[in-house]
Amino acid sequence: MRTQEIARLLAGSICAPRRGGASDAAGERATTERARRMGRCLLMGLILCGGPAIGATNEPCPANSPVPLAARSEEHPVILVDGQYSPYFKGAVSGKWLLLRDGDFMTLEGRGYFRVRLEIEYWFGHGEVGATNFTSVEGELIHVASGGGKKVDDKYSSKSEQNMLGRPDKGFSRVTADETPWMNEFYYLDGKATLALREGGRYAHINYAVKPVSWQDIVKDVQTPIDPAKKWLRTGMVRDRCRSADGR
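Above: the chain sequence. Below: its structure as tokens.
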């Protein structure tokens, strides 16, 4: 199924207004709640984020590719065109551009891949951890893979309860996204998208670290073997699957 067709289906099931009297009021509220829970994942174009792996595209897999990740055009690498953000500094979560405070945002533009790395500052308090918070999209934004060696609720070892959400002596934040986030989430952008930080109050204290990446960077991340000593607890997930030679 083409991405544009997926977008139309999602728009019809999530964002389309309902008509009718009082009997439709509950349905309209449910529609609004579904859209909220998806973290505004459909906005002004196509965006697939925080959901299950999408089906195979019509693109054939690259020759000798170790993973079934579609290779999309990277002719205009993603750049930052606006925002309230911090550049990377020593000791910060790894990335080129950082969102560290509630209300920080960045607007990205281009035709290429980028990575969003999540850091949860449970030592400052606890709250909700939702889907990656894109607030506007013009064009196409596709959630292509998840990696970083762990989901936020993966225990670091069998002898410890600690994970990215917290630890017993500090407490734990809680996931409210439809799907548990990974440390690294990878996206493909063809257009413009704005990412914003929400923290404090009902929300957990978090940071986003963003940087442009290549198709090869994503492949390297998702196929990195498990290594508990480095807290690399699982191999990654490909969501934007290409069509293999046998048609699957």
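The longest strand covers residues 134-151.
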